[in-house]
Design brief:
Blueprint lengths: L5 E6 L1 H9 L1 H18 L8 E5 L2 H11 L11 E4 L7 E4 L1 H13 L2 H4 L26 H21 L2 E6 L1
Antiparallel strand pairs: 1-2, 1-5, 3-4, 4-5
Helix pairs in contact: 1-2, 4-6
Length: 168
């Protein structure tokens, strides 16, 4: 199995409504956003598409162990539909994006870092070989990804956007 990336797309209200009724359009639109992100190399706060790469597993573990997040910003949300990825495409509506952003922006990674568990790097149901992800438990990499994730969700919440989550 190759390296699994966790990717996000911000959808404005009209696009979010359309995405929930037309999965084909949604996936095509998200691919366009991904292409723009790659070409423009936008920072997380400005991007409509974003990836935390392969550190999603340990970051997700840290957030779950902390236990106080009101919604799961890594693998939570409702199912949008099946896709070519590892698990179904999911989304957080604008209200849940606000909750996720408040938690991420309001909780420093320094408070979470002691919860990192180098032995648990990914969720077994989507990552049967944790050994291939051992490098992702580096505290500096996790802190950087967490900061970018907080910036992405913060900008999405400020704009009133929904967020689509994908493991690819």
């Amino acid at each position: 199995m190759g390296m699994i990336h966790c990717e996000y797309a911000r959808l404005a209200a009209d696009d979010f409504d359309k995405a929930r009724t037309d999965l084909t359009w949604a996936l095509e639109h998200i691919d366009e956003l991904a292409g723009e992100w790659v070409q423009m190399d936008l920072p997380a706060k400005e991007a409509k598409y974003f990836s935390i790469g392969t550190v999603w597993g340990p970051l997700h573990t840290v957030l779950r162990v902390h236990g106080e997040m009101p919604v799961d910003p890594v693998q939570g949300g409702a199912e949008l539909g099946p896709a070519d990825g590892i698990v179904p495409v999911r989304y957080l509506g604008p209200e849940d994006v606000e909750k996720a952003a408040a938690f991420l922006v309001g909780t420093s990674f320094d408070a979470l870092a002691p919860l990192a568990d180098a032995a648990h790097v990914c969720d077994e149901e989507v990552c049967p070989d944790p050994a291939e992800h051992a490098g992702e438990t580096d505290a500096e990499r996790l802190a950087h990804a967490y900061g970018e994730l907080a910036a992405f969700y913060g900008a999405a919440a400020e704009a009133g956007d929904a967020v689509v989550l994908m493991l690819n």
